[in-house]
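[User]
Um, C-alpha cells okay?
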Amino acid sequence: MTTTQTAQHLQDTTTLHNEVRMPWFGLGVFKVEEGEELVQAVKAAIKNGYRSIDTAAIYGNETGVGQAIREAIAEGLVTREELFVTSKVWNADLGYESTIAAYETSLSKLGLEYLDLYLIHWPKAGKYKDAWRALETLYKEGRVKAIGVSNFQIHHLEDVMKDATVKPMINQVEFHPMLSQEPLRAFCATQNIQLEAWSPLMQGQLLDHPVLSEIAARHGKSIAQVILRWDLQHGVITIPKSIKEQRIIDNAALFDFALSAEDMARIDALNEDRRVGPDPDNFDF
C-alpha cells in the first residue's frame, strides 16, 4: 500500500487530528549520551533546518537536548514556537500521579515550559491506562500540545480508546523495510492516528541490502535516503538518529527525488516482521 505524502521540504508538517502541526521529519537521540557531542548534534540539526527533536526520559539526555535548544534559540537559529519537541514517560513512572510527576521532571531537565508531544513509551500491562488519563489531564490543561503512545499494538490502542476521552494523536513504533507494520498502519489510518517510525534504518542493518542498494544506485542516493523516503511516501513520520553533522544533512536530503510505485512495492516486499527492538507484547521492563 503506497500513501502519497505531502512533504516537499524538510520543514513541511502533517496535521494531527487535534489540528496541531508536526514535522514529517526530525532528529532522534536514542542512545546519545549527555555531553557536548549531543549538544552539538542537536544544534547542527536545528542549524540545518530540522524542527523536530525526539527524546525520552529513559534516554538520560533530556538535559543536553534542552541545553542545545536553549543555545539555538539564544543564537537566533530558531524560536521555541518553531520547534516540535517530544519526550516520553518510562515504564517505571506509569500511573496517574507518577506520570504527571514524570512530565514535570522532563520539563525541568529540558528547561522548557511545555512539550509539543508527550508519549507513553511502552504499553506496560496494567499501567498504561492510568498513565493515559494523566496525559489527558496534561493535554486538557494546555500543558502539552499533543499526546500519544509508542510501541502500541492494535489491541493496546483499542484498550486505551475504550475509556479515553482524548484519542492518541501519534503512535511511534519500530518501522523499517523488514518490519512494515501493514495491519497496524491500516488500523491507525482508520482511526486518524499518525504513525511515526523509530529505528527507521534498522540500526544500520539494512545499509548493504542488495535490493535497496540497486534502488539507491538508480536514484543516485544512499540506502539510508531511500529508506527514509519510503517512510515519507507511506505517510509515516520519521526521526533518524545521528550525531555527525554531515550525516544529519544527508539524512534530510529527501526532497529532490521520489520512489516509483515499483520501488515502493519492491521495498514493501522485504518485510519479514523482524524486529531489532523488543516485542511490545513481551516487554515488561
About this structure: The longest helix spans residues 96-110. The two ends are 34 Å apart (CA to CA).
